[in-house]
Amino acid sequence: MKRSCTFSLPVAVVASAIAYIYISTVFIYIDRWFGLMSSPGIMNAAVFTAVALMCIFNYAVAIATDPGRVPVSFAPDIEDAESSIHEIKRKVLLVGSLTIDDQNDEQESGGSSRTAYVISGLLLIPLSVALSILLGWHIYLTLRNKTTIEYHEGVRALWLAEKGGDVYRHPYDLGAYENLTSVRTLLHPLLFICQ
């Protein structure tokens, strides 16, 4: 299956945002804080360049990869509610962090730096809103013990069940507390390794 390469406005906006953030970070912020010819400046610029290249690579792979389809013959496994062994699906939570600059930097900066701060703020506000919505969506999925594909298949199954006069219940939903406990149990060994 060949995909045609056509212009896409959302892809162009994301690529422009990555380019702007890279250029402003390296050539304005890192240059002003450390100097690009100093050892810390070169190290920070190299690390940020590697991170930016990974972002571009991962975004390109995400765009080019077909998400796949759920097979027509798929039927979820029904587990015994009494059993303590349940399949835990992967949950991905994306958390971003922001740094806040001192007000002294703002007073020392010229007009071009203020422009960079304003544009960076204009990029970060929608990004923060989008990530907050994504965080809320994943909290909802975690509380229901579902993946995104299971959610969409559940909407279809709910519609079919209501059409047939039945009641549909997601087979892996153990209740909010048990769902959170199972995710915590899954993440506990990972947290131990990171310490």
Automatic annotation (TrEMBL):
GO terms for molecular function: palmitoyltransferase activity. Keywords: Membrane, Transmembrane, Transmembrane helix. The chain crosses the membrane at residues 7-30, 42-61, 116-140. This is Protein S-acyltransferase.
